[in-house]
């Protein structure tokens, strides 16, 4: 308090000169370098006040604070454009997924500009960089033995003549009997679901009754990573600032033992899987979308790795 009173008494003239970062903003040796992201909003809707207050505005406030502190700050965001949510919206509006992405990316951009959100760059995930970086991460996982192949019993709609991705299926939750559970999780009890486990499943596109058929998919071998992950988590819990809820959920996953997680889907709209036998599939959005933070930064600057691969800064 004393320091604040003293600074106030000396007035604005005594403040250090505002830092004017180079363009593009890159880490500077000897400075405090801050990279800020907002959770990537889905491109299939119009942002409302809840989206802005709960995610974008808080990060914008922090970015402005960091700049006032003369910290070298980069704030990026963008629309999350792949996955079944986009395909579903495209079906609803009678447009192609790409047309839906173009339409709603422009709406998002205009709204954030109207609110004067201080992004250094607002991008999107449907870019060549997204494909390049996601496929590179996939190839590294493959090379280091962290992927496995397995047969999955998956729902197929014979009327639509397609395997149904998670969000194209609705049914009754096998755990809590909630009648509007999705094919990947139940929004009532929060449990992860295999779509084939749903009771009374329905195709969201035609309301037909799907049948179970086998299909090949690739899985991230999370059990192989658990032994390395646990000590990192213990250190992070001790030194970081995790919420009680985040700690509880993560502990429960570790306690129950990590399970292999499917990272491919029988869809057309997504990042293609670059492996023979799977080239008609795309990456599951929850494998692909987090990589969007990297690819959006890469679209901002070709020196993006200085932000994302620079743990010393």
TrEMBL record:
InterPro entries for the chain: aa-tRNA-synth_I_CS (IPR001412), Met-tRNA_ligase_1 (IPR023458), Met-tRNA_synth (IPR014758), Methionyl/Leucyl_tRNA_Synth (IPR015413), MetRS_core (IPR033911), MetRS_Zn (IPR029038), Rossmann-like_a/b/a_fold (IPR014729)
Domain of life: Eukaryota
NCBIfam families: metG (TIGR00398)
Source organism of the structure: Oceanites oceanicus (Wilson's storm petrel)
Single GO term (MF): methionine-tRNA ligase activity
Protein name: Methionine--tRNA ligase, cytoplasmic
Catalytic activity annotation: tRNA(Met) + L-methionine + ATP = L-methionyl-tRNA(Met) + AMP + diphosphate
Methionyl/Leucyl tRNA synthetase domain: residues covered: 34-311
One GO cellular component term noted in the UniProt record for this chain: aminoacyl-tRNA synthetase multienzyme complex
SUPFAM superfamilies referenced in this protein's UniProt entry, alphabetically: Methionyl-tRNA synthetase (MetRS), Zn-domain, Nucleotidylyl transferase
PANTHER family cross-referenced by the UniProt entry: METHIONINE--TRNA LIGASE, METHIONINE--TRNA LIGASE, CYTOPLASMIC
UniProt keywords, alphabetically: Aminoacyl-tRNA synthetase, ATP-binding, Ligase, Nucleotide-binding, Protein biosynthesis
Gene responsible for this protein: Mars_0
Any GO BP annotation: methionyl-tRNA aminoacylation
Family: Belongs to the class-I aminoacyl-tRNA synthetase family.
